[in-house]
Amino acid sequence: MGKNLIQQRRGRGSSTFRAPSFRYPGKAEHPKIDKNAVGKIEDILHSQGHTAPLIVVNYPEGYNLAIAPEGKKVGDEVSYGKNSEIRPGNTLPLAEIPEGTPIFNIESKPGDGGKFVRSSGAAARITTKSIGKVIVKLPSKKQKEFSSKCLATIGTVAGSGRTEKPFMKAGKKYFSMKAKNKFWPSVSGTSMNAVAHPFGSKSSHTKGRPTQSSRNSPPGRKVGKIAPRRTGRKK
Fold this sequence. Notes:
The strands form three sheets. Strands 5-10-6-7-8-9 form a six-stranded antiparallel β-sheet, with no helix packed on it. Helices cover 7% and strands 24% of the residues. The protein contains two helices and twelve strands, in the order H-E-E-E-E-E-E-E-E-E-E-H-E-E. It is elongated. It has two domains: 1-17 and 183-235, Ribosomal protein L2, domain 3; 21-162, SH3 type barrels, CATH 2.30.30.30.
């Protein structure tokens, strides 16, 4: 009798694969304000669901939780709106930010609160502007086009250097992943027993069957390359 694959176990929705979002401070996003506003940083928080620290900003319209910029502390002021100064921590539309300025927490669509460049130590830069569009160079060196109305925060995300300290022991990595409820370690199919995966067998380095699966394969066999257009090295 076989077992469910990890892909199938995830779909069940058990607590093993669910993020403990009830322990998160909240959703870190740009404020939903229709006018220019100046807020004061009231607190800096740690969230197990974010790699970067979060700040609590007190605006006249209410409190807002946001990704912390590098160099800011409790008591500093940050502003929001297209008339804001080009200073770290201020949030403006991409159309108002000069080329070459480091930015983070970029909206994918105007009003979604920020989706790109949110991890600790990350920053993107504006490379080109056109009518209604702005091209941004992301930390991955990839260039992506955004609407000029999308909001972004000036500066670099706080918490840089997090990845410079290596995990010296597997136990440290385990507890780091457990804090975010990540399923770890991730084992390849060839290293499993035959009962747990189609690629598994007593010979761990050898795949006992082809790695291609058809589009109509049943659940439990649809692993590896699913309906690939081509395989092998290009000539």
